[in-house]
Each structure stands twice: as C-alpha cells, then as structure tokens.
Amino acid sequence: MENIRRKKWLGIAERYPNLKSDEQQRIQERMREWAGLSPEQRAKVRDSYKEFNQMPSEQKQVVKQKWEAYSNLSPEEKQRVRQSGKSTQLLAPASEPKAAPPDNSTHTEANGTLPAPSTTGEATKNQ
C-alpha cells in the first residue's frame, strides 16, 4: 500500500471511535463497497475523483446539483435514467428537479464508480 493511502487509512482508524454510530455505519458501508470493486474499477474511481477535484468550483456545483437531483429520483426513474444514458436535462429549477441522468461516466455505480464526493467522508472514497 502506498504511504499516502496508508496514512489516510490510519487517520480514519484514529477518528473512527469518536464518530457517531451513523457515521461509523456509513464508513463501514463505503468500505464494503470499495472492497467489492475490482482494481480497475478502483483506478477509475480515483481518476474520476481527481478530475472532480480539479474542476472549477462552478462546475463542481453543477455536478453536485445533478447528483442531488438524481439521488432524489425513485428507483424506477433511476433505472430509466441509467438505461437512457442522457445527462443533458438533469438540472431543473430548484423547486422541481427533472428526471434526467447524471453524467454516467463519473457518478453511477453501474459503471463501477461512486457518487460525487460529499463534504464528509471523502477519504473513504480514495482508499
């Protein structure tokens, strides 16, 4: 394991006992998801994460809005979005999000990647 990744894992392990139980459960679930990915899928997730972090803040905000709109869809709508492969109409006025897909190349688990980074727990996605 690379030194930087080892340090991140040690930091997570150090903070873990002080986290709330729901945060501990979220970390455990993320670790299970990560462990289930192939090395190729992990590399793809890491690349997507790096690309996201290099985006201008305005573009990051658009991606986050798209992901939030997608996350609010019903499971049936999400399935239709995945099958359609379109992401151009995801954003709608804040009061009523449209049922359109996120950019499937970086934000769906269907192709082996994880959702856009949240404000907490980002370290678990990069492991």
Q: What's the topology here?
A:
Layout: H1 3-15, H2 21-35, H3 39-54, H4 57-71, H5 75-84, H6 104-107, H7 122-125
Task: Sum up the structure in keywords.
61% helix, 7 helices, 0% strand, disordered C terminus, mainly alpha, 127 residues
Kindly state the mean pLDDT as a whole number? 75
Radius of gyration: 16 Å
Enumerate how many helices there are, as a single number.
7
Q: Which blocks of ≥5 consecutive residues have pLDDT under 50? A: 92-127
Shape: extended
| Helix and strand composition category | mainly alpha
Order of helices and strands: HHHHHHH
Characterise the protein shown here:
- Mean pLDDT is 75; it is low at 92-127.
- The chain is extended.
- It is mostly helical and 127 residues long.
- The chain is built from seven helices and no strands.
- The longest helix has 16 residues, at 39-54.
- It has one domain.
Give a nutshell description of this structure.
The protein is mainly α and 127 residues long. The chain is 61% helix and 0% strand.
